[in-house]
Amino acid sequence: MSHGAPRRVPEIRAEPFLAPHDSQVKMVTSLQPGEATTDEALVVACGAGDRAAFDRLVDRHGDALFRFASRQCGSARDAEDALQDGLLAAWRGAATFRGEASARTWLFQVVLHACRRRSRRRAGEPAFHAPVEEAEALSDGEAGADERAAARQTAAALSQALAELPEESSEVLLLRDVEGLSGGEAAAILGIGLAAMKSRLHRARLELKERVEAILGHALRETKS
Amino acid sequence: MSGIRDEKVVAGISCSEVLARLSDYLDGDLAVDARRQVEDHLRGCDGCARFGGEFRSTVRALRVHLGRPGSLPASVRERLREALDEER
Questions:
Q1: Is B84 close to A62, i.e. CB distance below 8 A?
Q2: Which residue from A165, A43, A158 is spatially nearest to A95, judged by alpha carbons?
């Protein structure tokens, strides 16, 4: 999708990391091309202005962050804008990174905040749910036409149900059940305790089940994984 | 509560208690004894067994249908690059 001339990006500040364990983060200020290194070292290098390190971070996490933003935002265009806002905020805030949580957690946090800002601006507009081309899915060529049609229908129902859920429910479902992040990571990204995250996740799963059944007219049965 | 029509106690635990623990059960977060108790209840309660199966299917479907690999659009990378250039 082309957006013509680049737009001015609103300032979003990445939350600084407090550092009880400064020594855990190796201070790297420049990296050799192809050098194997941790995400955390890459963020530290970004903080020193290393654009190549930033590119490598985006290479590693850009797809997952984009997938998350696409589901969480009110439109495809907003998802792209939110991701750009978030990644720029990460670049600007990288110098504050001290490694209290993982770099991936931090990146998801920053993008989540950017998505929330975009969603607030869109409050009141009809809920968007992503197109279902991903459900061309079950792409193993052996799936029959009926199976592919059922997969598309299920994916569409899940997308619609997610879009209709309250923001805090869709966020936790996307982080835990779509992206597969750990409970600790999801809790840290959402800025809540592990017990609160689990409680929120359980409620969200029940809500999702109910909505999907209302949309499809039946409960989901086992799918192949 | 949603999905439980005939509340009963099986294996020393009620349907509502099982429902409340379904996510912890699914995520492997229950202690051994609690897990065994939930499983004993599910074996003896058709309603909870059916509801639990549908619950698990819905959660798994999220990953199967929506968690597919996607690519960051080149246009996003390009805009990001341009924005970073402007920051210099």
A1: no
A2: A43
Q: What is the ipTM metric for this complex?
A: 0.91
Q: Which residues of chain B make contact with A51, given a CB cutoff of 8 A?
A: 84
Can you give the pLDDT at residue A208?
Answer: 98
In a domain, A163, yes or no: yes
Co-location of A116 and A205 in the same domain: no
Q: Are residues A113 and A30 in the same domain?
A: yes
Q: Is the pLDDT of residue A30 over 80?
A: no
pLDDT per position as a tens digit, A39-50: 999 999 999 999
pTM: 0.80
Domain assignments of chain B as residue spans, ordered by start: 9-87
Interface contact B72-A178, CB threshold 8 A: no
Task: For residue A66, give its domain range.
Answer: 22-121
Q: What is the distance in angstroms between the CA of the first residue and the CA of the last residue of chain A?
A: 31
Say what percent of chain A tops pLDDT 90: 57
Closest CA to B81 of A225, A9, A173: A9
Rounded to an integer, the average pLDDT of A77-98 is 91
What's the CATH number where A179 sits?
Answer: 1.10.10.10
Cβ pair B22, B29 in contact under 8 A: no
Domain edge (last residue) among A89, A121, A153: A121
Matching residue, tokens 């190549």: A52
Calculate the alpha carbon distances from B26 to A104, B30, B57 in Å.
25, 9, 11
In A, which residues are within 8 Å of B3 by CB distance?
A: 206, 209
User: What are the chain A neighbours of B27 within 8 Å (beta carbons)?
Assistant: 183, 198
Contact B82 A2 (CB under 8 A): no
